[in-house]
Amino acid sequence: MIFARVTGTVVATQKDPNLNGKKLLLCKETDHAGNPLKTYHVAVDAVGAGEGALVLLSYGSAARMTDETRTAPIDAVVMAIVDDVQVEHDAAPAKGGR
Amino acid sequence: MKLGIVTGKVWATRKVKELEGCRLLIVQPVSSDRTPVDLPLVAADPGGLAGAGDVVVYVTSTDAAAAFPGGLAPVNASVVELVDRIA
């Protein structure tokens, strides 16, 4: 899972029928503190995340492992809305990444 | 399966139902002598095994879902073992 900030929505009228009714979010990858990194993802929303929210995003085949996305041709899903991140034990300078 | 040290946790009240009751941890991958390698990642802890400072074994990719009952969960990494010692 990676941290991402919802920066917008993607609207598409013509799409694969298995994507009907699914909200597509434009998400910018961040580090655990919410600082933006370079990568963008288009992800299906499985939790009702709004614009500006810090979320967790699953990618790859794991994205299809929710009831809502089982049959959909997708490779990214927003599966949690982050309330808070607590780093208690500093094993290394945590900088960015997944 | 890889070694990591739990450095923190992620609080998320709203999540998909497959992850209800499951803790989400920040894990720093380490080598066998506990030196950090690579970047930290977020891993699910379906067994409620670990807390901050613990050394754990985690799995990634498709296998991460296998740590959940029923084998279905939208996760990229799961903690599967709490390490007591490395001999």
Could you give a quick summary of the protein structure above?
The complex is a heterodimer of chains A (98) and B (87). Chain A is built from no helices and six strands. By secondary structure, chain A is an all-beta fold.
Task: Describe the secondary-structure layout.
The complex is a heterodimer of chains A (98) and B (87).
Chain A: E1 2-10, E2 24-30, E3 36-45, E4 54-59, E5 76-81, E6 84-87
Parallel strand pairs in A: 3-5
Antiparallel strand pairs in A: 1-2, 1-4, 2-3, 4-5
Chain B: E1 2-11, E2 14-15, E3 23-29, E4 41-45, E5 55-60, H1 63-66, E6 77-82
Antiparallel strand pairs in B: 1-3, 1-5, 3-4, 5-6
Helix percent of chain A reads under 10%
Helical/strand content category of chain A: mainly beta
Count of extended strands of chain B:
6
* Cα-based radius of gyration of chain A, to the nearest Å: 14 Å
What series of H and E elements makes up the topology of chain B? Answer: EEEEEHE
Q: What is the chains' assembly state?
A: heterodimer
Strand content of chain B: 35-45%
Order of strands in the sheet with the most strands of chain A?
A: 1-2-3-5-4
Termini gap of chain B: 17 Å
Round the Cα radius of gyration of chain B to an integer and report it.
12 Å
- CATH class descriptor of chain B: Mainly Beta
How many β-strands of chain A, per DSSP? 6
**Low-confidence runs of at least 5 consecutive residues of chain A:** none
Element pattern of chain A in H and E: EEEEEE
Q: What is the molecular shape of chain A?
A: globular
For the record, what CATH class of chain A applies? Mainly Beta
Shape by Cα distribution of chain B: globular
Low-confidence stretches of chain B: none
Whole-number average pLDDT of chain A?
91
Biggest chain pair interface: A-B, 40 and 39 residues
